[in-house]
């Protein structure tokens, strides 16, 4: 599987930590010291569908691939606009990608990695070209009076256009931990439509299971980890003996955008030259489910 091009899309409205301090008992210092986050982008008119479609259109324009050439469209999201139809189907229809089958996956913050794993296997079969997109409007799922979660999340979308090539299948490591579902939930009931998270338990889960997944994988040049928390990524890097130069991060700018965080980071690293052709990339998503997914590929 070869990544041909990348794209991202974010809402127009920017919300800083200082903005949040106007309505919450918090401060820029409190948030940034604990999370590394300084601002995030919050949807006003944008939707999961509209941002995902913008990414898809950008990918096709950059690559000069016609919609009719697409075999599949996969959208990773935990914040769809509709329960059905899926955002993938809506994007397929808007693009008039009439030869493509489309479906969405929900593995929360690990969703993009799981979607890439599926795409690689589709390309190892009869498919030759497809889109893998992650799009999230998490702001609709946040209780903006809850300091523990309101400071963490942002909205955005990112994605890749992938094609079949002669390389062997990417190496993947996917694991689910359904006995720990209560540690991170959204919409657990009619009276609980928002994020409910045991932050310390999720932090310890990441230190344990993300580190274990990375240690099971071959080494890489660049490690693109889900952008949840700067302290968490630094601790993971120490445990795996990685220099921070190999573990880029951008949560200061975007906050935690769930499935979209890895493709947004990937796009930025390619755009500014931190990632170049031929490098081995290890992408690792982790979070709600609970779930962890790692995939190693060559850019």
Automatic annotation (TrEMBL):
Listed SUPFAM superfamilies: Thiolase-like (SSF53901)
Name this polypeptide is given: Beta-ketoacyl-ACP synthase 3
The keyword Lipid metabolism appears for this protein: no
CDD domains according to UniProt: KAS_III (cd00830)
NCBIfam families attached to this UniProt entry: PRK09352.1
Keywords of the record: Acyltransferase, Transferase
Superkingdom, natural source: Bacteria
Domain Beta-ketoacyl-[acyl-carrier-protein] synthase III N-terminal span(s) in chain numbering: 103-168
Annotated Beta-ketoacyl-[acyl-carrier-protein] synthase III C-terminal domain residues: 221-298
One example of a Gene Ontology biological process annotation: fatty acid biosynthetic process
Gene Ontology MF, one: beta-ketoacyl-acyl-carrier-protein synthase III activity
Provenance organism: Lacticaseibacillus manihotivorans
The UniProt record lists the keyword Coiled coil: no
Pfam families: ACP_syn_III (PF08545), ACP_syn_III_C (PF08541)
Membrane-spanning segments: none
Gene3D superfamilies reported for this sequence: 3.40.47.10
Catalytic EC class: transferase
Catalytic activity, EC: 2.3.1.180
């Amino acid at each position: 599987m070869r990544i041909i091009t990348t794209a991202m899309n974010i809402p127009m409205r920017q919300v800083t930590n200082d903005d949040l301090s106007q309505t919450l008992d918090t401060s820029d210092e409190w948030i940034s010291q604990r999370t590394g986050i300084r601002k995030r982008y919050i949807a006003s008119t944008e939707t999961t569908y509209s941002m995902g479609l913008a990414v898809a259109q950008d990918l096709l324009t950059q690559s000069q691939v016609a919609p009719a050439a697409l075999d599949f469209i996969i959208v990773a999201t935990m914040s769809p606009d509709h329960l059905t139809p899926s955002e993938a189907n809506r994007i397929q229809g808007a693009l008039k990608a009439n030869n493509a089958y489309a479906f969405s996956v929900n593995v929360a913050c690990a969703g993009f990695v799981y979607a890439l794993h599926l795409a690689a296997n589709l390309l190892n079969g009869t498919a030759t070209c497809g889109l893998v997109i992650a799009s999230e409007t998490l702001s609709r799922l946040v209780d903006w009076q809850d300091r523990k979660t309101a400071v963490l999340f942002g909205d955005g979308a990112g994605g890749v256009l992938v094609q079949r090539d002669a390389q062997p299948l990417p190496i993947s490591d996917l694991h689910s931990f359904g006995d720990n579902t209560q540690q991170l939930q959204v919409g657990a009931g009619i009276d609980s439509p928002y994020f409910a998270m045991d932050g310390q338990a999720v932090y310890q889960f990441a230190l344990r299971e993300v580190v274990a997944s990375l240690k099971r994988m071959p080494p890489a040049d660049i490690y693109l980890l889900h952008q949840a928390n700067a302290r968490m990524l630094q601790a993971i890097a120490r445990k795996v003996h990685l220099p921070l130069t190999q573990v880029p991060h951008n949560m200061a700018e975007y906050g935690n955008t769930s499935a979209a965080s890895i493709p947004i980071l990937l796009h930025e690293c390619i755009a500014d030259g931190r990632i170049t052709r031929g490098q081995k990339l290890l992408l690792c998503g982790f979070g709600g489910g609970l779930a962890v997914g790692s995939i190693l590929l060559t850019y």
